[in-house]
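Section 4.2 – Deliverable D4.2 (structural model, holo form)

The reporting period included a commitment to supply a predicted holo structure for the target in complex with zinc ion. Inputs used:
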Amino acid sequence: MGLIPPDILENIRSRVDIAEVVAQYVPDLRLSGRSSKGRCPFHQEKTPSFHVNAERQTFHCFGCGAGGDVFAFLMKIENLGFSEAVERLAERAGVPVSWTRESSGAGSQERRALLEALAFAAEFYRDCLLKSPRAETARKYLASRKVSEQASEAFQLGYAPGGSEFWAAAEKKGLAREILAKAGLISAKEGRPRDYFFDRVIFPIRDAKGAVVGFGARTMGDGVPKYLNSPESPVFSKSRVLYGLWEGLSAVRRVRKAILMEGYMDVIAAHQHGFPIACAPLGTALTPDQAALLKRYAPSVAVVFDSDKAGEAAAVRGSAVLLSAGLSVRAAAVPSGKDPDEFLHEFGGKAFKDECLAKSEGPDQFLTRKLLASAPKPLTPEAKSSIGREVLALITKVPDEILKSEWTKRLAKTLDVSEGALSREMGRAVGHKAVRMPPEPAAPKPAPAAAAFFPPEDAQVLRLAFENPGAAAAMAVEDDFISHAGRKIWRAFLEVKDGPSWDARLSVAESLDEAERSCVSRLLVESGKSADSEKALEVLLARRRALRRLREIEPQIRDMGAGKRPKDAVLQEEYLRLCLATKRRGN
Ligand SMILES: [Zn+2]
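Output (C-alpha cells):
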C-alpha cells in the first residue's frame, strides 16, 4: 500500500464519487437521509441495508458488516488487489498514475509479461486475417458465416497460420520463449518452437477489464477439435471468463441484463444484430464462477442456446447454475429448430426479439415443455412422476422461497398433480440432491458478541468525534473508552484525523482488524459533519467521566456509611456532586 503515493490516492478519491461507483453494482441505490441505501451486493437480502455516505466517501452494510472506502469497495466487488483497484479508479477519474508496479512482486510481473505476449499475439493474428494471402480461406469462411466487417473488427477476429510464423514474429519482437509457452501461444517442447494454433480462425477472449487473456480457435475444415481454446495459464481460466462480455459491457451495465448463448458465433451474430448484451461460456458448461461474474453486471439473464437436444440440456444446466447464484433467469427457444446465429442472420434482430426473446419463459416452464413434448400421450402416471422430479430438481436451485413455491404451483397445474405431493417430493429432492448444488456463498452475519466487543458507549463517543474531529481530539482521551476496540479505533483516528479524507482512510486503516474496520464504517455512514456535536460530546464525556469516578468511590462511601471506614468529608462532598451531575440519587 505504501508504494502508491498518498497524494495520488487523494487525487483519485477527490475525483471519484463512491455513490456513482457503487450504483453500477447496486442498481436500486436510493438517497435516504444523509446516505444512499440499496440492497447489498455482498450478501443476499430482500430489504436494503447497504449504505453509502457520499459526504464521507465510505460505505457500510448493516447486514453483513462490509464497509470501507471506494478502493475497498472495488477490491471486494471485483476481486482486485489494492493497486489494481487504484489503477481502475485512476483511469475512471482521469488521474495519470505515475507509479509503476515494478515493486509489486514477481507474480504480477509475470502476469504483465503474459498479457503483453497475448496482446501481441492478438495483433499478429488480426494482421494475418486482414493481410496474409494464407488467410484467404479464413476470410471466406467468416464471410460464409455472415460475420460483418464491423463485427470482425469489434471482436478483433484473427487468423493463425501455424507452423512457426507467430513464433518468428514474437522472437523478433523480443518476447521471451518461456512466457510465450506459458501463455499457450507456442509449444513448450525442445527444439524450434511451433505455434500452438495452426490454420485456425482466432477469437480473442478478453477478461472483464478488456485484456486479452486467451484465444478460442476454430478449424475451417474437418480438423479435430473443431474449437480449440488456449490452455489454462496464470492469466486464463476458461471457467472464469465469458466470451463477448467485455465487448458489450457498457450495454450490459446500462440495461442490467444479459443474453447467455452457446458459442462464439452466436455471440458475434447477436452483437451484429443489435444485441451487444450477449455473451457465452467458452465451449464448456456454465460454471458458478461465470454466473457470479455475470451477476455483478446483469442480475437478469435470458438463456438462448441451440435448439437441438444437447443445446436444450445445456440451457437447463446453465439456467440451474444461474438460478443457484441468485440471478433471475428466462429461457428462450429459437424457433424452427435453428441455431441462434443462423436464425439471426436469416431473419434479423427484430425477429429474434419478437419470436425468441419475447417468448422466453421461466426455466421451469421451458424444461416442462421440453419434457412433455417427448412424453407419451396421454400422460401416464409414471411419466408425470418422472417429469415432476426432473423439473423439481431445477426448482430446488432457486434461493427465493416464494418463487420456488410459485413454480411448484405452476408445475402441479401443468402436470395436473397435487401440489402437496410435489412439495413433499421436493423435500426429498433437496435432501439427496443437495451435494450436487454449487456452494452458496455464506452470508456473513454480524457476530452476536459484537456488542460486548464494541459497546454502544464507545460508539456514541466515536460518532460524535467523527462529526467534529478537531474539537474531539482536544476533548476526549483514550481512557474515555471502555473497550479495547474503542481505544484502538481512537488511536487510529488520532493518527489520520489531520489529513485529507481522514474518514475514508480511517475506514480502511491497516492498524484495525476487519471487525474494527466494520465498526468504523458503520459509525461513519451514521455520522455527518456538524459543529453542534462539540457541545454534545462535551456533555457526554463529562457525564461518562463522572459515572466512572462515581463507580470508583461508591464502595468507599458505602464503607463509611457502615462505619467500616473513617468519615472523609471531601470524598463525601465529591460524591454528592457526582450524584447531582449524573442525576443519580445519593444515599
Ligand atoms: Zn451486506
